[in-house]
Amino acid sequence: MLELKVLKIGGSVITDKSLGSFEVLKKEKISEICEVIAEKYDNLVVVHGVGSFGHPHVKIYGLKDQVSISKIHLACLKLNQLICEELLKRGVPALPIHPIEGINFDFIKKSVNNGFVPVLHGDVTVDSRIISGDDIAVELAEKLNSKFLGFATDVDGIILNGKVIKKFCPEMLEALWIVEKKIDVTGGMRKKVEKILSLKTDCRVFIFKGDAGSLRKFLNFEPVGTEICRQ
């Protein structure tokens, strides 16, 4: 049985999501992340947010017609291709998978079994819905019986009363109020935690800083950042 890891890389980690940003890459951060993944990518599925390649497009174009949906999707594809190309440069067999086409979990499992690293991303659907990277990551963890699910973010973990907490329990949810000066059409940290709490599989879930040291810990099945305890 594979000890599968699902890693979700936040859009705020790899792009500039500050107000007014439009398709702005954090090139050094992308290089750093891809270097670490290249060190240990066995049994790994990657999902990345689309940051300023997705959220501003939804704000500008909306989901009102086929043209706007196509524009949003193409922006998501652009970022996905850039990420996959950076992984391939480092010898990682990145396999781009686009959620607008539907997610074939058997195909993803087969891809991992054959040594590939599937790379999915936040996207839209042809019936005008947003598919968040967080939702995809949680669904992958459920369908693939992942052992570890990690969310690499731009913060060290969940911060309450000014401190990063090691373990987050469901009763802490009401205390979680994050004020973010960013465009995020998928709900931010609170929505992320609510989605994680709905997870219906026995895997450990962590929210942590998307830096090299924290990523290495996660890829080696080591606790990092804040662990989300669902009971």
Characterization of the model:
The chain has helices spanning 11-14, 27-39, 55-61, 66-89, 105-113, 133-143, 188-197, 212-219, and strands at residues 5-9, 44-48, 94-96, 117-121, 123-124, 130-131, 148-153, 159-160, 163-164, 167-168, 204-209, 226-228. The protein is globular. It is built from 8 helices and 12 strands. The protein has one domain: 3-Layer(aba) Sandwich (Carbamate kinase), CATH 3.40.1160.10. The strands form 3 sheets. It has an 8-stranded mixed sheet, sandwiched between helices. The chain has a two-stranded antiparallel ribbon with strand order 5-6. Strands 8-9 form a two-stranded antiparallel ribbon. It is an alpha/beta fold. Helix 2 (27-39) runs parallel beside helix 8 (212-219).
Give a nutshell description of this structure.
The protein has helices at residues 11-14, 27-39, 55-61, 66-89, 105-113, 133-143, 188-197, 212-219; strands spanning 5-9, 44-48, 94-96, 117-121, 123-124, 130-131, 148-153, 159-160, 163-164, 167-168, 204-209, 226-228. The protein is of the alpha/beta class and 231 residues long. Helix 2 packs parallel to helix 8.
